[in-house]
């Protein structure tokens, strides 16, 4: 029983909207963050800049237009 709960928790965590999630999405659109022209993630992706918090734990990130790190091309 304990192993199945740990497995279920693992599947829930990897499907959350992090920078490189299981399904490759572009984050969550929340009105306060989209007003800043950003997206909400559980931590900013490479090539994105942190702007503010979305609700309690999500981070509002804006895509960098200049001085992108070379790791951006790998994704």
In brief, what are we looking at here?
With 75 residues, this protein is an alpha+beta fold.
Question: What is the beta-strand fraction?
Answer: 15-25%
Q: What is the average per-residue confidence, as pLDDT, rounded to a whole number?
A: 76
Can you tell me the residue ranges where pLDDT is under 50 for at least 5 consecutive residues? none
First-to-last CA distance: 37 Å
**SSE string, helix = H, strand = E?**
HHEEE
Protein name: Beta-defensin 136
Signal peptide: 1-21
Keywords: Signal
GO molecular function, one term: lipopolysaccharide binding
Question: If you had to describe this structure to a student in words, what would you say it looks like?
Answer:
By secondary structure, the chain is of the alpha+beta class. The chain has a domain at 21-72: Antimicrobial Peptide, Beta-defensin 2, Chain A. Helices cover 23% and strands 21% of the residues. It has two helices and three strands, in the order H-H-E-E-E. The chain has helices at residues 2-14, 31-34, and strands at 39-41, 48-54, 58-63. Strands 1-3-2 form a three-stranded antiparallel sheet. The termini are far apart.
Could you list some keywords that capture this structure?
three-stranded antiparallel beta sheet, alpha+beta, flat, 75 residues, Antimicrobial Peptide, Beta-defensin 2, Chain A, single chain
Q: What is this structure's SSE topology?
A:
Blueprint: H1 2-14, H2 31-34, E1 39-41, E2 48-54, E3 58-63
Antiparallel strand pairs: 1-3, 2-3
